[in-house]
Amino acid sequence: MLRHFTAQEVEAGLDYPSLIDALDAAFRRAGEPMPVRQTYDVGTADTPGHLLTMPAWDRGATLGVKLVSVFPRNAERGLGAVSSLYVLLDGRTGQPTALVDGEALTNRRTAAASALASRYLSRPASRTLLVVGTGHVAHYLPEAHRAVRPIEKVLVWGRSAERAAALAGRLREQGFAAAPVADLPAALAEADIVSCATTAQAPLVHGRDLRDGTHLDLVGAFTPRMRECDDAAVLRARVFVDTRAGALAEAGDLLQPIAAGVWSADRVCGDLHDLAAGTCGGRRTDDEITLFKSVGTALEDLTAAALLAGAGDPGARRRDDAAPLIRIATAG
What we know:
By secondary structure, this protein is of the alpha/beta class. It has helices at residues 7-13, 16-28, 102-121, 141-146, 161-173, 184-190, 231-236, 244-250, 252-259, 272-277, 298-310, 319-322; strands at 3-5, 38-41, 50-58, 62-70, 82-90, 96-101, 128-132, 153-157, 177-180, 193-196, 215-218, 237-241, 268-271, 289-293. It is 33% helix and 23% strand. The protein has an eight-stranded parallel beta sheet, with helices on both faces. A six-stranded mixed beta sheet has the order 1-6-5-4-3-2. Strand 8 (153-157), helix 5 (161-173) and strand 9 (177-180) form a beta-alpha-beta unit.
């Protein structure tokens, strides 16, 4: 039977501890490479538009694809520019089994992937989180990070003081000691973990402002022209990524210092597969700076959708067994 999961059902059905553990198991396992994200121009001269597809599969178990449309002029119609839907299918028959709200799924799995990286890279006693940005993903990050670290205090910085205050208020309702901040360098000096979720075209976080021991989580910038931190931050940090293929194709935070000749791709210490499988070490000392750059992967979508659809099913496989056996498809 085909099931439809609304945004509210995604929120209720994917608790962070379970999702983070499922992602950990999925990244730990190795498998065949998946195709990278495909983008198609589907617009007209008057209405530009793009269709993006992100497929992934676990042979004999499950497969799925996220469909994303980007129509920049939708604001003129009172609609959002980005819409998405996830289609989950049975890996044995190819029959559709679930339709999942794509935005909710993406937001939740993105935050969970950041928390998974934090499990390996942030200091275990991290209690203060700085969120840079006030968009959709920013709302999810504190709760996800709290699933792996004893986060008590959340500082919120945004270009709009009003939106930063609103997000801080919402986080207080979730039990955080949250407050908006206007002085970003001062907040950076206080934070144990810095999580950025913006569409910045120029650096917001500067390496000179990071204190020793900080974990820097870069979620937002997802094209070569975008970046959230400067070269100095990259140079000061041990750098990890969600996937090498995705990050080294799309992450401006890394591609721009590479182009400038001040950093090189071989300085990536590892990806989420390496961390989960134990083939590379995570944080080594309390005073080193770590940096995690994500651009998204279809593995995360498939893992989250399969976990969601299997929730409450007595015949569903155990969490570790349910993790898709796939290598990685780049996706946003």
